[in-house]
Amino acid sequence: xxxxxxxxxxxxxxxxxxxxxxxxxxxxxxxxxxxxxxxxxxxxxxxxxxxxxxxxxxxxxxxxxxxxxxxxxxxxxxxxxxxxxxxxxxxxxxxxxxxxxxxxxxxxxxxxxxxxxxxxxxxxxxxxxxxxxxxxxxxxxxxxxxxxxxxxxxxxxxxxxxxxxxxxxxxxxxxxxxxxxxxxxxxxxxxxxxxxxxxxxxxxxxxxxxxxxxxxxxxxxxxxxxxxxxxxxxxxxxxxxxxxxxxxxxxxxxxxxxxxxxxxxxxxxxxxxxxxxxxxxxxxxxxxxxxxxxxxxxxxxxxxxxxx
Length: 308
Description:
- The protein is an alpha/beta fold.
- Helices cover 39% and strands 13% of the residues.
- Strands 1, 2, 3, 4, 7, 8 and 9 form a seven-stranded parallel sheet that branches. Strands 5-6 form a two-stranded parallel ribbon.
- Residues 1-20 have low confidence and may be disordered.
């Protein structure tokens, strides 16, 4: 692999402890030789710039999946769109961190109910490590449920659940709760086997209804802007037959709304998000997928397969 791309990529195909195997590919209506891909947008609800980009991407078929941050400032703006457009595949980006100094948020529940989840200023912790260090599990469960319930009451029908900044993968107790609530609500949790397959304590918790993605992919920190297209192209070029994969983007616009929050040049900043938007909206991506006979699947299909 070209190390200059600085890509996090693990492309292992699992035949056990994973539903993303040949039989599942077949159950989804495809042949065992097929490469299945979800093109996904994270951080929906962060701000108007993100919401606008995601709506544009869904309407034009640039993406076929996305997940929403329920505590984020512009959740309600996007929830209205989601309620009026149930045809789009939308999940929940369960959020326990508030990482941008210029745009902080708390939880869905009152501060008095979830004090361990908040920093000294009353916001969710800046990073996942601080969250895991301070969080009380009962308060995590209360807030997790509250985010799901708020989304459902807003008219969203979640097709999947993932976790902002991988917070629910910080320790075994959090991961156990993550799986438990997904099963209870009958919403598939996103499980990246390429990251946890070598962690027996996590793998041992998986049950038949837990859907393991063969690869969860994104462009990593340190990728030069000039190599952006090459980085994503290489991820797609290395997809394996008979696998289910998710390519995750953080799309938005390099505008003032995004820049004032993220800093234009920061990791996941406005320029990063504009590059992601440029890549998913380019005709070249559609041509690549067609040329390689890559099939797009959605979390809605997976949810219907697991929870009939």
